[in-house]
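Lab notebook page, bench 4
Experiment: in silico fold of construct C2
Operator: M.H.
Input chain length: 188 residues
Purpose: comparison with the prior construct
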Amino acid sequence: MNGYDFDRTIYDGDCFVDFYFYCLLRRPYIIIMLPYQLILCLLYLCKILSRHNLKQTFHHYLIIVFGTEKMINKFWQKYKRKIKKWYLEQKREDDIIVSASPEFMLRPICDILGVKYLIATPMNIRTGHIKGENCYKDNKVERFKQMFGEDARLESFYSDSKSDIPMLMLADKKYFVFGDIIQEYKGD
């Protein structure tokens, strides 16, 4: 089994940011949330608001987006082109995606790609509320072990971020992805 982070690893960009702008174009009234979102970002940058709380409160705009599920499916019909070619060429049936992006955002693209294993942030599609923990750093490992067992290992893991070093440590082969360049990770 090979494991992959999603955003900036096998997807060229951040899908939830892309989806936000996709919503903004199709539901321009969500712009009324922008001052609130900018304040949240400022509080996060000043280390007053945690990453978990920023993610959860920033995405309260979902409350006023009508037809979210339908929009996500249409989004992926357009944005699946941003899945990197190198991934499509090596994709396997037993791949797992482990991402901090919301599960509801990634499930449709996993279905399109034929990826049956997904670990992602459990976020409410209607409110943006995170049920439990953001799927980030050590939480990714914890969730992986819950799903596959304490001794579970990966053949390979690919990521664009040092925050995924805990996941990389579960893999026999470890790779960092920079755009379309893949480099083996040999430790710090």
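Observations: Strands lie at 2-4, 96-102, 117-121, 154-159, 171-178, 181-184. The chain has a mean pLDDT of 95.
Next step: discuss at group meeting.
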